Amino acid sequence: MRDPGRGAPAVLLTVDQVADRLQVSRWTVYNLIRSRELASLTIGRCRRISEAALHDYIARQSEREIA
C-alpha cells in the first residue's frame, strides 16, 4: 500500500505495536480508537493503525502540552 502524497509504502501497526511505542496498555489504545483520537482501520477482523496516524496523534498531544 502506498501513500500517494509521500511516495513511500504506508506501514500498518497492530494495537500491540502501538501500545509498545506509546508505552501504554492495549486498553488505552482501544480507548483512543473508540474516542476517535487515534485513527485506525479494520482489515477483516484485525484492527490496524497507520504510522502516519500514530505520528499525527503524537504531534497533536505534543501541541496540547506546549499550549
UniProtKB/TrEMBL annotation:
<dbReference type="InterPro" id="IPR009061">
    <property type="entry name" value="DNA-bd_dom_put_sf"/>
</dbReference>
<dbReference type="InterPro" id="IPR010093">
    <property type="entry name" value="SinI_DNA-bd"/>
</dbReference>
<feature type="domain" description="Helix-turn-helix">
    <location>
        <begin position="12"/>
        <end position="62"/>
    </location>
</feature>
<dbReference type="InterPro" id="IPR041657">
    <property type="entry name" value="HTH_17"/>
</dbReference>
<dbReference type="Pfam" id="PF12728">
    <property type="entry name" value="HTH_17"/>
</dbReference>
<protein>
    <submittedName>
        <fullName>Helix-turn-helix domain-containing protein</fullName>
    </submittedName>
</protein>
